[in-house]
Structure formats: structure tokens, C-alpha cells
Write a structure and sequence with these properties.
This protein is of the alpha/beta class and 149 residues long. The protein contains five helices and five strands, in the order ααβαβαβββα. The protein has helices at residues 2-22, 26-40, 60-73, 94-97, 144-148; strands at residues 49-54, 82-86, 102-104, 120-126, 129-135. The protein has a five-stranded mixed β-sheet. The radius of gyration is 19 Å and the shape is globular.
Length: 149
């Protein structure tokens, strides 16, 4: 009897853990999709998409370095699935402005998302949900090209 209860509890816990792993960013996905719809009439897509989020908050020099590296890493392939959103228009280098459309968040709503946007953040989405959130750090400078491909 005790063994049967133990097995039942074990399977329930395993099921709960698997269910949680399938949608690790469900709250963030819902809020981010609502933000995209309200601010820009966009929505999360089924296909792969990477959002480059540029915050009002953070280290200006660091953000400029990340954005220059991102600008240099843009090619004909990855530009198709990159979307740029900025609440800090002054920090965006002209080289990047000349390559891509940058959605302007003039209300600063970007900086209030659950994603916790500070500096530059890459948000990878697919199947209408967030798959990964990367808060860029100095040690990421050599990996930025990989992150965008």
C-alpha cells in the first residue's frame, strides 16, 4: 500500500516537473506578447524570432559595444528574424540604425517587463513563446555572432 502511494506520488512529481520545463517562460511570454501588441501591433510568431531589446537602464559604453558587435554580425540570413526594440534611442549607433528598423518605445514600457531588461537583452522566441532570454554581459562579446545565428 505504502509502495503504491510512493509510486503514485513519484509519477505525479515527475509529471509536474516535465510540465514546468515545457514552458519555462510562460508568464514572460504572455506579458511580452501583450506588450508587442499594445505598443507596436506585433505578436509572437510560430517561426523563430530574436528580439534585441535595448534598455534605458544600464551601462552606456557596454550597450554601445554590444550594439556595434550586433550590427557587425547582421547578415542576409539572420536579419529576417531579428526585431529591434529600444527605449534608449540615443545609445543606438548610426551603423545599426542604417541597417535595421528599430521600434521606438517612447513610453519606457520595455523597462518594466518581467524579462528585466537592463543593458541589451536577446529574447529568442518560437512557437509563440519565449525560449531563451540572454542578458548580455561583457564575457558574451565573443559569442554575440553565435547568438544571432
Amino acid at each position: 500500500m505504502i509502495k503504491k502511494k510512493f509510486i503514485t506520488v513519484f509519477f505525479l512529481l515527475c509529471f509536474a516537473m516535465v510540465a514546468c520545463k515545457n514552458k519555462p517562460y510562460s508568464k514572460e511570454s504572455k506579458q511580452f506578447n501583450q506588450y508587442l501588441q499594445e505598443q507596436f501591433s506585433l505578436s509572437l510568431q510560430d517561426s523563430k524570432q530574436t528580439y534585441v531589446l535595448i534598455s534605458q537602464n544600464g551601462c552606456d559604453g557596454c550597450m554601445q559595444k554590444y550594439l556595434m558587435l550586433i550590427s557587425q554580425s547582421i547578415n542576409e540570413e539572420n536579419i529576417k528574424y531579428l526585431t529591434f526594440i529600444s527605449s534608449n534611442n540615443e545609445i543606438v549607433p548610426d551603423e545599426l540604425v542604417n541597417k535595421v528598423k528599430i521600434y521606438q518605445d517612447n513610453k519606457g514600457e520595455l523597462d518594466r517587463l518581467l524579462i528585466n531588461v537592463i543593458n541589451v537583452v536577446l529574447v529568442e522566441t518560437e512557437s509563440k513563446s519565449i525560449k531563451e532570454i540572454r542578458h548580455l554581459q561583457l564575457e558574451d562579446t565573443l559569442k554575440i555572432k553565435d547568438y544571432l545565428n
